Task: structure prediction
Amino acid sequence: MKIATWNVNGIRARQTELQEFIEREQPDVLCLQEIKASLDQLPVWICQLEGYSCYWHGGKGYSGVALHVRTATYPAPPAFQHPPFDFEHRIVTVQLPNATVASIYVPNGGKDFAAKMRFLQAMEAFAAESQAAGVPLVLCGDMNVARTDMDVHPKERKPGIVGQRADERALIEQILSRGLVDVHRTLDPDNADLFTWWAPWRNLKQRNIGWRLDYVFASQALAARAASCVVQREFGTSDHGPVIAVFDA
Result:
């Protein structure tokens, strides 16, 4: 199973890149964030993507998430849902035979930090409910928190700023404590240059001076079958790179 997650930072500006990405990678599940478009703003080919069951959940010009499920892998019509804590089009889930997968865009928190903390707390409760029910879970997306200092380039480290605060990081750890594994970091534990977001100035992306904000958190049994997890920094014009995780059958 191949799961990809990508904050596209505006799907209308990234249509050609998305088509190229899907054709090349053919993920079984594709999670998108910050699509910044309502359904009536999307071209028909995206909404009716050949070979995929698609669910777009967005508003005009802000936030928004999407999920795509490959029909060759999962032929039954998937059940897309929103947890009760969804707001501003920030989360959609799909129930698959082997796991529930969520595409998530956590609030940045710069303008409303309390809302960000509430969202993370609700994510933790959601993960706890799934764990108690014995439902394997994969949380994918832009969590807008760098887990540790290692997940921020030394030139970008600013203790106490939003995205690097101790209280945010503590909530990420609480989410992971609900039987989840940070797949990327587990497979690449000593890589101090592992980033997924780069501020769009001073050629920071080209210089790989960034933050790790985009994650694949998977239930332990599924994470144990993770064969690879990579970020494609050089692909696309978004300020985020796609993250692709592959799990053995």
